[in-house]
Amino acid sequence: MKKITISQPSLSKKQINSVVEVLKSGHIVEGSVVIKLENELSTYCKAKHVVAVNSGTAALHCALYAAGVGPGDEVITTPFSFVATANPILFMGAKVVFADINDNDYNLDPTLVETKITKKTKAIIGVDLYGQPANYDKLRFNESITLIEDACQAIGSSVSGRKAGNLADIGTFSFYATKNIMCGEGGAVVTNSDEFDVKSRRLRNHGQDASKRYQYFDIGYNYRLTDILAAIALPQIGKIDSITNTRQIRANRYIENLKEVSSIVLPTVDSHVSHCFHQFTINLSDSFPVSRDKLITIFNKHNIFPGIYYPNPLHLQPQFKKFGYHQGDFPKAENVSKRVISLPVHPKVSLKEIDKISEIIIKISKGNK
Ligand SMILES: *Cc1c(COP(=O)(O)O)cnc(C)c1O
Question: Is any ligand 1 atom within 6 A of the Cβ of residue 81?
Answer without folding.
Answer: yes
